[in-house]
Sequence to fold (209 residues):
Amino acid sequence: MASFTNQPVTRDQAKVMNRYDISKRMLTHLHHDEAVIGGIGYSNFDLWAASANPNGRRQQNFYMLGSMGLAVPIALGVALAQPHRRTIALEGDGSILMQLGALGTVAARAPKNLIVIILDNGAYQITGGQKTLTDQGVDLVAVARASGLEQSAWAADESAFEEMIDRALKQDGPWLIGCRIDNNKPVDTTERDPSRIRDQFMRGLGVKK
Fold:
């Protein structure tokens, strides 16, 4: 497969970016009712905040509550169930470390419409900032490649991220984009109403009126 980027960088070389800003930038590239699965905690808090607009938030966003490591498996299920719809998993480093086997499953099933974005700040920030293994040398992009996801790369900076997400939305995947992010607090907190989140997402995917 073709390289994801012409100038690949390592995790250490990648610029540390802002989670909310990355979420906003990603959303500006979505124009075809793409599904977005926000992992637990700050990954979906900033997705929630970034999705606010005068017409209400995107119904195609799913905000996970309290289940670490399941953003990629849920996104994989959506991608397989609706192969015409681009599906994005927005996951933190702590959560994906709990479910590394999901990367191999994604590679094995190879859904062309799936994009995984890892937001890596090297910490379990929502529970007190304890260090994750990525702060001690684990490279999640390298893990993804070793799992069979050849189209995996670190975003060098915001401009590179936008180029990568634009390409991933137009060309066959699966894709994985690693983003180094800071430890800033989220802009807002997702409303904690599981039934409403589920129902809005189901309507957004056209499986419930």
About this structure: Residues 28 and 162 are 9 Å apart (CA to CA). The mean pLDDT is 93. DSSP finds eight helices and eight strands in the chain. The radius of gyration is 16 Å.
